[in-house]
Design goal:
about 350 residues, alpha+beta, nine-stranded antiparallel sheet, four-stranded parallel sheet, 11 helices, about 25% helix, about 30% strand
Length: about 350
């Protein structure tokens, strides 16, 4: 069903991703209605409407659904069950099935493996004894991750040797978890695609991603030519995932390039930090194409507009360098309106288009 410009798009979540979605929607003539529990979420500053409500409040979500023409969500740490009340009122994209798969690390890896993907060695861990057994099978070093509600390095503990198991179990507070074997990789990269309700799919150039302390620091396109084969393998898997989920919207899969192939890490059923470079660096950004997809409009071209594009996250105090960044002719600054910077908090990002005049 085509949702025409002038309609209202509901966005569950009020962070920077919702903010950038609302800005892209406004450019196409849509109004956005933000639903979030925060008192002053960043996305509400640029949206037409804002409702403060709990993500688990089904009655409030149903009322929210009645006020919009189509709905989406900006991050996956929302319980899928209550969103059923929203989906009963209005079309909801991406589908809840994608959310259910992606927000449980065990289900996610099993799902991808069934489609022929290659995740790192993994094992479910629900008790301290199961952690010991998983370490015997997978070995150390490894990483223990909670199955649900973890991002940017949260809900994780490294296990460098078997003797670290007790501390790691305490770090995840005994929550249902998954143990993953370490992957010795050459590069990290992501595949970002967008699929419309009619099944048309587009992808962007795969960025090379660099993380520190579990947080993405930079994404650069194009990725090194040494990982071309791994990127193509990953792209084909991502297309299979989108098809299997009957997906609508932007979908992101993260990978390691290892041994000439692609090792699956995790997926996110939403626009993604590693795709922020597309705002200035591609003909159509991930945010605009997500809006196009959920409104059943033709998807835009994803070609890169400069020989090289780099996105750098501004973490904590990094955001205070805004004057210096604005003095750089190649830089494009995005600040998220989050107030006081804190360590580990994403305050904004800066994109640099390199060699554009040479293209």
């Amino acid at each position: 069903m085509i949702v025409s410009p002038g309609s209202t798009i509901g966005i569950v979540g009020g962070g920077q991703l919702g903010r950038m979605l609302a800005m892209a929607a406004a450019q196409l003539g849509y109004k956005c209605h933000i639903y979030a529990p925060d008192e002053h979420p960043p996305a509400a500053e640029v949206a037409a409407f804002f409702t403060r409500g709990d993500f688990a409040d089904q009655e409030a979500l149903a009322r929210f659904g009645a006020s919009v023409d189509v709905a989406t969500y900006e991050f996956e740490n929302i319980a899928a069950g209550p969103l059923g009340a929203l989906g009963a009122q209005v079309p909801l994209y991406p589908p809840r099935k994608a959310l259910e798969v992606a927000q449980d690390r065990l289900s996610e890896k099993e799902f991808v493996a069934r489609l022929g993907g290659r995740p790192a060695p993994f094992a479910a861990v629900d008790t301290r004894d199961e952690l010991d057994a998983a370490l015997d099978r997978i070995g150390a070093p490894a990483i223990l991750k909670t199955r649900r509600f973890g991002y940017d390095g949260k809900g994780q503990a490294r296990v460098m040797a078997a003797g670290d198991a007790g501390a790691a179990w305490e770090a995840v507070r005994g929550a249902p978890s998954i143990l993953e074997g370490f992957v010795r990789f050459e590069e990290e990269f992501s595949i970002i695609l967008c699929r419309s309700a009619s099944g048309k799919t587009v992808t962007w150039d795969a960025p090379r991603n660099v993380h520190a302390e579990g947080i993405l620091r930079t994404s650069t396109v194009p990725a090194p030519p040494e990982v071309t084969a791994a990127v193509e393998e990953a792209r084909q898997l991502a297309l299979k995932v989108a098809e299997a989920l009957d997906y609508v919207g932007v979908l992101t899969l993260e990978f390691f390039a290892a041994g000439g192939g692609a090792v699956f890490n995790e997926m996110a059923p939403r626009v993604h930090n590693s795709g922020h470079w597309t705002i200035e660096g591609a003909l159509t950004s991930q945010f605009e194409n997500h809006i196009r997809a959920v409104c059943d409009l033709p998807l835009g071209a994803t070609d890169r507009v400069a020989p090289s594009v780099t996105m750098q996250n501004l973490i904590g105090e990094d955001s205070k360098a805004w004057h210096e960044i604005l003095s750089d002719r190649d830089a494009r600054l995005h600040l998220y309106g989050k107030g006081e910077p804190r360590p580990g908090r994403k305050m904004g990002h800066v994109t640099r288009l390199i060699g554009r005049g040479e293209r």
